[in-house]
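Researcher: Let's do a round of design. I'm pasting the structure tokens now; please hold your answer until I've finished.
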């Protein structure tokens, strides 16, 4: 069957797929066969599919079907098979790889010298992205598929991501961004001794209202304006000419560095971070009431109304009980108040917890599972892979920030005048 005939058949109907799966499961039940491992159902199906594909490759290479008289005198012919075990996402599969007499056959599906297929590599990278150590990955593969994988093989698979990581960290960026969020998460890295170090994360909202992680930077505790100038200059050198709002968590030296890099940018303390910082000082039994009272501050229509709401909170029961919360808001007031000037459509987008929290939660889980990392590069690889699984250019719906982004974009255009050119 040629390519045109295959296309004419069209996609396989769901009912047919269900029927095939049902037959396979009945066969497994009748024979008592396992799903995975040597002789397992999925292993045998994988073997059959791969061998049939390899036979098709050989037919294409020779130009005639097996046993076809047209092959007589062609100068080349089939020459039996050789056995080869490859690692697939269904485990180890031993294949009969066809050979030709003059040795010119170069299989594409299972290349010469290849001992694992792409699906297996992706599975290893997926496990690595979840923060699993090399030992954990070996144990998982042995338990699930009965495959013993060497630490060197896992290291080679994960090290192959390094070039991809470098290309991602140096890729060109759009010239104008409505919002960039900057945050830090703390990761334990061994450098002589194990120490907690910050990894800075920049997440942008593009003109379509979709999130994109712009970069990762490993820092040292106590770094300030110099570090931020390096990070922001890198973003500018990669093409970011202007940002309307840079939202952050009061990171030392960042506001001054933002102003120096993008003079027109508004530095905005993240409201979610302010609330989270406030809740750290309070007993959990008061969290619900605190959130309600603090909401009166950040939803106030004007700065004057917000000041009054903060004064009311300060004089109230919770303000008297938790003076540290009052100090937290007072210290962040100058970076918080720009938020009060924004129209509701912009406020909703700047405030949204889904944007950066969904990413941070995944990254924290990956680093928490791992405990600590042997090097800075190892930490960045895990974080990059976790980001790659969560945020992809194809997943536009998943990456979308606001349900009514076009309304917000129109308000951005009005509020920030001619700095945006919406599509």
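Researcher: That's everything. Go ahead.
Model: Designed sequence:
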């Amino acid at each position: 069957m040629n390519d045109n005939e295959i296309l004419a058949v069209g996609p396989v109907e769901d009912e047919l797929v269900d029927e095939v799966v049902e037959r396979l499961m009945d066969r497994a039940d009748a024979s008592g066969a396992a799903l995975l491992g040597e002789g397992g159902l999925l292993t045998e199906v994988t073997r059959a599919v791969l061998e049939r594909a390899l036979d098709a490759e050989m037919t294409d290479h020779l130009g005639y079907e097996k046993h076809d008289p047209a092959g007589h005198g062609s100068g080349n012919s089939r020459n039996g098979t050789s056995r080869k075990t490859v690692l697939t996402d269904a485990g180890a599969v031993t294949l009969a790889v066809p050979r030709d007499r003059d040795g010119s056959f170069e299989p594409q599906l299972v290349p010469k010298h290849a001992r694992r297929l792409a699906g297996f590599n992706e599975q290893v990278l997926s496990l690595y992205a979840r923060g699993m150590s090399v030992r954990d990955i070996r144990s998982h593969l042995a338990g699930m598929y009965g495959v013993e994988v060497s630490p060197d093989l896992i290291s080679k698979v994960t090290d192959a991501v390094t070039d991809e990581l470098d290309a991602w960290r140096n890729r060109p960026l759009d010239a104008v961004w409505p919002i960039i969020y900057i945050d830090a998460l703390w990761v334990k890295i061994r450098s002589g001794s194990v120490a907690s170090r910050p990894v800075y994360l920049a997440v942008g909202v593009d003109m379509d209202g979709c999130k994109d992680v712009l970069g990762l930077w490993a820092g040292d505790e106590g770094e300030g304006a110099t570090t931020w100038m390096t990070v922001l200059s890198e973003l500018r050198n990669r093409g970011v000419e202007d940002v309307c709002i840079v939202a952050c968590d009061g990171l030392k030296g960042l506001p001054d560095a933002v102003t120096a890099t993008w003079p027109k940018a508004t530095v905005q303390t993240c409201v979610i971070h302010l609330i989270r910082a406030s809740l750290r000082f309070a007993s959990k039994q008061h969290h619900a009431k605190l959130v309600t009272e603090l909401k009166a501050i950040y939803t106030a229509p004007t700065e004057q109304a917000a000041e009054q709401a903060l004064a009311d909170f300060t004089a109230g029961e919770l303000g008297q009980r938790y003076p540290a919360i009052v100090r937290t808001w007072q210290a962040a007031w100058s970076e918080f108040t720009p938020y009060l000037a924004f129209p509701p459509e912009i406020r909703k987008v700047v405030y949204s917890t889904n944007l950066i929290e969904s990413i941070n939660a995944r990254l924290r889980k990956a680093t928490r599972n791992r405990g600590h990392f042997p090097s800075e590069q190892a930490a960045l690889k895990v974080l990059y892979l976790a980001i790659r699984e969560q945020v992809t250019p194809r997943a536009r719906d998943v990456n979308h920030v606001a349900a009514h982004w076009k309304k917000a974009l129109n308000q951005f255009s009005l509020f920030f005048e001619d700095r945006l050119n919406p599509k």
